[in-house]
Amino acid sequence: MAPPEATWLLYFDDEAAPALRLAQAAGLNAQAIERHRFPDGELKLRLPVDAAGRLPRHAVLLRSLHQPNEKLVELLLAARTARSLGVQQLTLVAPYLAYMRQDIAFYPGEAVSQQVVGGFLAGLFDAVITVDPHLHRIDRLEQAIPVPQTVVLSGAEPLADLIAERRPNALLVGPDGESAQWIAQAAARHGFDHAVCTKVRHGDRDVAIELPALNAQGRAVVLLDDMASTGCTLALAARLLLQAGAASVDVAVTHALFAGDALQVLRDAGVGEVWSTDCIPHPSNAVPMAEPLAKALQSVLRG
Ligand code: R5P
């Protein structure tokens, strides 16, 4: 069953390509939000409207939240304006959801960003669809973003399909305990040999990793994780695996954040291929998510 015909998919110009792919897959009417930046840095948005100057009752906003700070202001302006123009059911599709990693105050006075940003999004949207949010100490997205409907997709299985094609006998390795969930999903799908490292983080670019008991000798290893930011986690794991005799180390991640020189950091560590989903637009994108996102959207729109 198709979603209600009048549903519009609102997007910003820098995400036109993924928006049009998603709109086509979900059978929605894609409409761009105009954005003007004033000389002092403030933003002005202009939402698309029909001939009567209104928006439909159902609308979807696509915004992947890498480089999130300004985008959170965009969401505030766009969502509040959409409501004032008649939208009653507003769904956020954020293939990458920011601020999910800071989920506890490690020191007195620290902001628990997951709760703060989650509460902010819950105040704007009725439903949230995302992919592999970094939920470490909680099980369900609605614990972080208390909205009536949430859908969490995973990049692990489609990435596993790609790995099975490119490295059929891969030894799948997770760089830290948190990656165990994605390693388990991917291994269950294709029967890969698999193992998970242990990691202690000392700083943004300072991690210590211990390999699990495994025989990497001569193996084509693929490191799989939800995201790479500085690349330091995957780079250190790759170095250790190559020292342990791995024939090759490639990398597969759902979210290609790859801040600064992260790709070079991986290359310098001996990493071969880098594959990612298109949740964050990046040259490493090899797995499209439009179809699963469209299915999730159709189920949300049907209520
Ligand atoms: C955290 O546990 C995540 O799963 C990643 O391992 C982490 O964000 C990677 O960060 P970086 O690339 O900066 O080492």
TrEMBL record:
EC number: 2.7.6.1
Gene3D superfamilies attached to this UniProt entry: 3.40.50.2020
Pfam families given in the database record: Pribosyltran, Pribosyltran_N
Residues in Phosphoribosyltransferase domain copies: 167-255
Keyword Transferase: yes
Keywords carried by this UniProt record: Nucleotide biosynthesis, Transferase
The Ribose-phosphate pyrophosphokinase N-terminal domain, residue ranges: 20-118
Transferase is among the record's keywords: yes
GO MF annotation, one: ribose phosphate diphosphokinase activity
SUPFAM superfamilies in the cross-refs: PRTase-like (SSF53271)
InterPro entries per UniProt: Pribosyltran_N (IPR029099), PRTase-like (IPR029057), PRTase_dom (IPR000836), Rib-P_diPkinase (IPR005946)
EC class name: transferase
Cross-referenced SMART domains: Pribosyltran_N
Lineage: superkingdom: Bacteria
Family: Belongs to the ribose-phosphate pyrophosphokinase family.
NCBIfam families: PRK07199.1, ribP_PPkin
Annotated protein name in UniProt: Ribose-phosphate diphosphokinase
Species, as recorded: Acidovorax benzenivorans
Classification lineage: Bacteria, Pseudomonadati, Pseudomonadota, Betaproteobacteria, Burkholderiales
